[in-house]
Amino acid sequence: MTARVGAPSTPGRPITVPTSRHLRRELRQRRRDHSNRTLGQALDDLYLWLFAVLMVGSMAGTTLSRAWLEIARCSGPGCVDARLVLPLPLGAAVLALAVRTLVALGPMVASRASGTFLLSTPVDRRGLLLRPAAALMAGAIVLGAGLVSVLVLLTSSHPVAIGAGALAGAGVGVVAVAASILAQGAPKVRRALGIGCDVVVVATLAVVPLLLLDRAVWSTAWARPGPLVACAAVAAVVAVALVAAVVRRIGRLPRRELVAGGELLSGLAGAAASLDTSMVSDLLVARRFRQRGAGRTLRGHGSGLVGVAVREAQRSLRSPQRLALAVGLLAVPYAVDRIGVPTLTPLLAVVVGYLALRPLGGGLHVIARSAGLRRAFPVADRPLRIAFAAPLLAAAVLWALAALPAVTGNSMLVFGFSAPEPAAVTWLALAATIAAGGIRSVTRQRVSYDGALISTPAGALPAGFVAQIFRGPDFALVGIVPLVFGLPWVLALGLPLALLAFAAFRG
Question: What does the DSSP assignment read for 63-115?
């Protein structure tokens, strides 16, 4: 149970270091001795988790099944069979996003207490980390097998193909987790892996416009038993090799990397508990530039507010992957219109545009939350806000112009008023709605817990808490309502412009 260390602390009594198994057993026993949770409380928490998972799963399943039925009813000459379009790029994008998330978090993490009192001791670090790594790989096996099985079911009902797809998904899941663990100890490899995942996500979105050219680029051959069995065999071989490498090298992971991932995870958990999405963005940006270190300085241009706007545009260009993702997301409205769901095109264009362009308002977000920084500029607050918002406005105009062909002619879906809005009206309405939602979202203040509490099904919440959380998405959804329901063009353009003016001058 113990191993001896060479240098004795006192004559005749050597120092003994417990093994990792013995230490885990001791810690487990201490936690049980000091735990104040009863069996009823544990079962109550388990019930709440199961209820939440089943409720969210049933809602998501119902929504997806209805959308799939609407897609299947599209039989016109301009429609494309969604079975040939969605499964393969969807699986590639989900895999790339999962690996990107694992790389951003660690994936091996440890709290500051564990890093101080456990990982800095002479106890074998590999023994302490193997069990969390095994748990991650077990979860990857379950999720990977389930995801690929669902994707195969969307294309084929062959039982051998479904089973081979489950095996292939399990192997790919283990490969993804093991590769992320190995990359954690090598900053250059981790950065290259993250860039590769970003390229895969953008590529899966960028190839969708090829459908507009009626190119036969999609095929269901991948969902046959042969390719899936071959993929499962290759994934199994690679997974075994990577798992063996993880077992050998996991004990050499730097403690600072483990603790940094734990701090990020705890910060994200706190932001999720308070529903403060701005805090999530701040944490991810801070970790990214902390890992990157010093950057190359760029010379600005212009003076006054023009110089501020140019500097903000240069800051946005420091993150080319965000710009590439914004360009790749342009394929979403075209794909939705192409597969036969035009009723969702205007709404999804605004939602995707909001998600794509909101990261460009980082400078405006900092200025809005820092009164001391605003006082450092020799101009009033309102012109300063507009100068920092200029790159976001320009990006919204360009993004709406690029998405316009997919949205034009898809309004008036419910009430059917006289005629479609002119293309210029649709363009300006899209741009104003996206910009209004983005500006209102990045200029919101920190979540305040002061004031009276209101009893809700989720517990006691401060007054105005919900309104604070939905600042930004509310303008994006309200501004697109006239265009979706085919209201007169004066209202379809006037409401987004009014929301944009309010967000720019008042926040």
Answer: HHHHHHHHHHT--STT---GGGTSHHHHHHHHHHHHHHHHHHH-SS---HHHH
The pTM assigned to this predicted structure is 0.66
Half-sphere exposure of 247 (CA within 13 A, CB side): 7
User: Does the pLDDT of residue 182 top 70, yes or no?
Assistant: yes
What's the domain range around 426?
304-506
> Per residue, what are the HEC states of 126-143?
HHHHHHHHHHHHHHHHHH
DSSP-derived 3-state class of residue 121 = coil
Buried b (16+ CB within 10 A) or exposed e, 106-132: bbbbbbeebbeebbeeebbbbbbbbeb
* DSSP bridge partners of 18: 2
Confidence of residue 71 (pLDDT cuts 50, 70, 90): low
Q: Are 276 and 446 in contact (CB under 8 A)?
A: yes
Q: Which two tokens stand for residue 202?
A: 């953008």
Tokens of 122: 């002479």
Q: End of a domain among 249, 268, 292? A: 292
441 CA to centre of own chain? 17
Cα–Cα distance, 16 to 8 (Å, whole number): 9
Quick one: pLDDT at residue 358? 81
Residue 292's pLDDT is 67
Name the region of 451 (left: φ>0; alpha: ψ -120 to 50; beta: rest).
left
Distant-in-sequence, close-in-space partners of 373: CB < 8 Å, separation ≥ 6: 366, 367
Q: What is the pLDDT of residues 277-336, one digit of tens each?
A: 666 666 777 777 666 666 667 676 767 778 778 888 787 777 777 777 787 788 778 777
What pLDDT digit, counting tens, does each position of 419-448 carry? 456 778 888 888 888 888 888 888 877 666
Helices (H) and strands (E) in the chain, counts: 22, 4
Which of residues 233, 262, 292 is at a domain's end? 292
Residue 465 burial class via C-beta count within 10 angstroms: exposed 0-12, middle 13-18, buried 19 and up? buried
99 in the same domain as 223 = yes
